[in-house]
């Protein structure tokens, strides 16, 4: 069996996969099979007798972890793959903290603050301390604190570190005090931000040798993908887990290090061999992903970086077409060119829309492409950006959930104490906060016993506080006995949010209703899929919160149907992925390289690596585009092609500069250019104000489903039915569809046996390969054509035999 598996690797990959004599570092170019080596190594370890739970694999995104698990599942079976410890640093360590956190003085139901929560708390603190808010910009202070945590500096350490001197020089000497207060407040609220998940794991292991030892014994092999982008804290934890046995395998590519701004350090890779004395270094140089032309073009670009480990990446794939560069007259024309090209290739090659990706430097660039795609009926999906869970109405609902799970959560408390409005104003809130600070207690503790803490308020306010606190306490009391979906619905209704949102009829309200509707569908989906996977009859709100808190902006909502949609994403989110055809848009000075990085060589090199990452996502074709006139920040800007285009050797690049004659249809302002291309049109000299439609929706996503004006309330039967349909992704609903979906799909007495082909509502067509358990506990292992192998608890599974 081993032979079979390893036969799918080349010699150098195989050598790296079977090496188990100590620390190992695989440094290799893009597309050379690093992730493949990790995947096969895990399969190999499992076949050599390692138990799945003894293997820890750390990936950069949740998506990468899911994909890797699925591949391993195909190699060694679902049963083993299911039990692997595999996920992002944050998800794995937050799970460890849930179990062990009492050792460092937290309660296991701690809340995870997202970036918005932590910024808002920092802002509150800056205000409370009477600091000048211009001088102490909350997001820069948050960045300083984050950087400190990623370097494992607690608030106390920070006060005596060299950073304090830097802060004095930057004229923000009080950052250390803000950090100190912020840390205290997080503790009072029993909350951790994303960086704390790492810092606290590190402290837990550093201060509690027995706990560290427990996890060293458990994780007998540790594997890390994208090692070049790990930060100091992540490396330090990996060291804590592996320094005794040195069974670590890290893979990475220094040429793809793109998180310098977040504290990831290209020197990681260079320092690995210092940290692990006998580390063995492996190199892989053959790229299996891309055509020769793409590999050579990307090599010629990255050669301009001074800081790098020399590598000779080559491809034996077909020679392929040159990388194409097209300059458009305007951003609209750029979008039209991309769209036309996609349609042309698609009809010529009979491939799917899922074979195309559009990559850009920053999220906001997706808008013009989206407009064009919508007009031309090209299905697409936007990855990343402001996540669904960051929308106001969703954050409000989640704040209720969080307060129910952890009443000490300060940010959740502040968010909803008076939402929907219940007459508890800012004055009362600030009195609660002052009293809570005085006693070093949470806001909830004071609000729920105002008389005990001598909170000054009138009788009406006491009554309102009591009503609020008893509503939350009632939900707390049933939290461990009522299903997440049921409780979630009760909360949305009981809190008054549904009334608030469903009573109004403005267009934005419809969008908000849409979101609540989708949120509930998602919650129900979560509950049912957990059940199907056999995780018990009840799935509680805390399980859902844990999952939601860890969705990063690099992950998107889980939505199976990507094969038929063009992917739109930032280059950062595209790391590790591959697509047959890649369009990199907006290659202009001032966008790419980002203007903020042009002042230092180091940052410019990081931008160049970013373009290298983008180009190396392409398998067959790579297009680079830019526009001469671009509508940004409410006006038209004149752009010149990115300097990086000069770095790509002309033998691999086909330049197609402004090919389409400027046509009025492409002018953003609608006017005619007066000087032909090359000179600025007149209307650009007096920029027009932003048209409101261009400001709309900072978070464009997949084409929004249409919604009728008179949508049912989420508590009606009709809504229930529709939720089921929504799981098929909110297409416009017909009566026939509702009937079909709500008809019983499985009856207990329909015999199911190995070999049956079934159609599952989410996973599609698959063959039953194994059955185990009886009656209520009957589980089927199904090999799905497009979704890998899954184990389903038949009692809850939604499928039919075909
Ligand atoms: P990146 O640097 O972008 O993360 P990587 O080094 O992790 O890339 P992989 O994603 O593992 O590369 O591999 C790139 C592609 O090449 C994948 O489709 C993979 O399946 C394929 N591949 C790698 N090695 C082989 C091989 N020996 N035989 C066939 N296909 C291979
Ligand atoms: Mg990879």
Automatic annotation (TrEMBL):
ATP binds at residues 28-35. Residues 696-710 have a biased composition (Basic and acidic residues). Residues 7-291 form the UvrD-like helicase ATP-binding domain. CDD domains: DEXQc_UvrD. It catalyses: ATP + H2O = ADP + phosphate + H(+); Couples ATP hydrolysis with the unwinding of duplex DNA by translocating in the 3'-5' direction. GO terms for biological process: recombinational repair. Keywords: ATP-binding, DNA-binding, Helicase, Hydrolase, Isomerase, Nucleotide-binding. Residues 292-576 form the UvrD-like helicase C-terminal domain. GO terms for molecular function: 3'-5' DNA helicase activity; ATP binding; DNA binding; hydrolase activity. One of its GO terms (cellular component) is DNA helicase complex. Pfam families: PcrA_UvrD_tudor, UvrD-helicase, UvrD_C. The keyword Amino-acid biosynthesis does not apply. Its EC number is 5.6.2.4. PANTHER family: ATP-DEPENDENT DNA HELICASE SRS2 (PTHR11070:SF2), UVRD / RECB / PCRA DNA HELICASE FAMILY MEMBER (PTHR11070). Belongs to the helicase family. UvrD subfamily. This is DNA 3'-5' helicase. It comes from Marseilla massiliensis.
């Amino acid at each position: 069996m081993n032979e079979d598996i390893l036969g799918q690797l080349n010699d150098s990959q195989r050598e790296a996969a079977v090496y188990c004599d100590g620390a190992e570092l695989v440094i290799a170019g893009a597309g050379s099979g690093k992730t493949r080596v990790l995947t096969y190594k895990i399969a190999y370890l499992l076949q050599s007798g390692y138990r799945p739970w003894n293997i820890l694999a750390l990936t950069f995104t949740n998506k990468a972890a899911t994909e890797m698990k699925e591949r391993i599942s195909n190699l060694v079976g679902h049963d083993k793959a299911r039990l692997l410890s595999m996920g992002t640093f944050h998800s794995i360590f937050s799970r460890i903290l849930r179990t062990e956190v009492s050792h460092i003085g937290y309660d296991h139901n701690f809340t995870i603050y997202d970036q918005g929560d932590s910024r808002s708390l920092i802002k509150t603190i800056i205000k409370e301390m009477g600091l000048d808010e211009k001088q102490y910009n909350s997001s820069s202070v948050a960045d300083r604190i984050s950087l400190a945590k990623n370097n494992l500096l607690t608030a106390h350490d920070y006060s005596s570190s060299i950073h304090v001197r830097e802060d004095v020089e930057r004229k923000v000497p009080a950052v250390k005090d803000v950090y100190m207060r912020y840390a205290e407040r997080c503790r009072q609220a029993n909350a951790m931000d994303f960086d704390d998940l790492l810092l606290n794991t590190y402290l837990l292991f550093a201060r509690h040798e027995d706990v560290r030892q427990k996890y060293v014994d458990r994780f007998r092999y540790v594997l890390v993908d994208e090692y070049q982008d790990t930060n100091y804290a992540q490396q330090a934890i990996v060291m804590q887990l592996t320094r005794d046995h040195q069974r670590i395998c890290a893979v990475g590519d220094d040429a793809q290090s793109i998180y310098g701004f977040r504290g990831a350090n290209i020197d990681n890779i260079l320092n690995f061999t210092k940290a692990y004395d006998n580390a063995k270094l492996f190199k892989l140089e053959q790229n299996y992903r891309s055509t020769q032309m793409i590999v050579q073009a990307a090599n010629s670009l990255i050669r301009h970086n001074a800081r790098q480990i020399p590598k000779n990446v080559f491809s034996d794939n077909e020679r392929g077409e040159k990388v194409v560069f097209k300059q458009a007259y305007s951003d609209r024309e750029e979008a039209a060119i991309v769209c036309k090209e996609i349609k042309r290739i698609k009809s010529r090659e009979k491939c799917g829309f899922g074979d195309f990706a559009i990559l850009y430097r920053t999220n906001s660039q997706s808008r013009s492409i989206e407009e064009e795609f919508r007009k031309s009926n090209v299905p697409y999906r936007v990855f990343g950006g402001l996540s669904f869970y960051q929308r106001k109405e969703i954050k409000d609902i989640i704040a209720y959930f969080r307060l129910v799970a952890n009443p000490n959560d300060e940010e959740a408390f502040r968010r909803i104490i008076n939402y929907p409005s219940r007459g508890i104003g800012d004055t009362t809130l600030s009195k609660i906060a002052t009293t809570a600070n005085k006693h070093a207690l949470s806001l909830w503790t004071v609000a729920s016993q105002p008389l005990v803490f001598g909170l000054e308020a009138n009788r009406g306010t006491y009554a309102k506080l009591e009503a609020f606190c008893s509503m939350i306490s009632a939900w707390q009391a049933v939290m461990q006995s009522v299903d997440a979906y049921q409780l979630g619905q009760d909360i949305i209704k009981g809190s008054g949010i549904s009334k608030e949102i469903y009573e109004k009829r403005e267009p934005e309200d419809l969008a908000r209703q849409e979101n609540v509707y989708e949120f509930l569908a998602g919650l129900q989906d979560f509950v049912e899929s957990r059940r199907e996977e056999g995780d018990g009859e009840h799935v509680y709100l805390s399980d859902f919160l844990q999952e939601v808190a860890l969705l990063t902006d690099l992950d998107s909502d889980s939505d199976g149907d990507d094969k038929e949609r063009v992917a739109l994403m930032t280059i950062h989110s595209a790391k590790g992925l591959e697509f047959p055809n890649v369009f990199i848009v907006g290659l202009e000075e001032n966008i790419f390289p980002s203007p903020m990085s042009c002042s230092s060589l180091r940052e410019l090199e990081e931008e160049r690596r970013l373009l290298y990452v983008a180009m190396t996502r392409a398998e067959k074709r790579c297009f680079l585009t830019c526009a001469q006139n671009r509508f940004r920040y409410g006006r038209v800007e004149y752009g010149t092609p990115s300097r990086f285009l000069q770095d790509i050797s002309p033998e691999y690049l086909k330049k197609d500069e402004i090919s389409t004659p400027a046509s009025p249809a492409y002018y953003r302002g609608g006017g005619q250019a007066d000087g032909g291309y090359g000179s600025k049109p007149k209307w650009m000299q007096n920029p027009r104000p932003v048209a409101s439609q261009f400001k709309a929706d900072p978070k464009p996503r997949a084409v929004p489903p249409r919604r009728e004006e008179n949508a049912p309330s989420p508590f009606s039967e009709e809504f229930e039915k529709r939720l089921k349909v929504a799981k098929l992704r909110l297409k416009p609903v017909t009566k026939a569809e509702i009937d079909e979906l709500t008809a019983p799909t499985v009856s207990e007495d329909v015999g199911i046996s190995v070999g049956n082909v079934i159609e599952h509502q989410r996973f599609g067509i698959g063959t039953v390969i194994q059955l185990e358990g009886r009656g209520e506990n009957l589980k089927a292992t199904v090999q799905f054509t497009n979704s890998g192998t899954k184990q389903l608890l038949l009692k809850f599974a939604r499928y039919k035999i075909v």
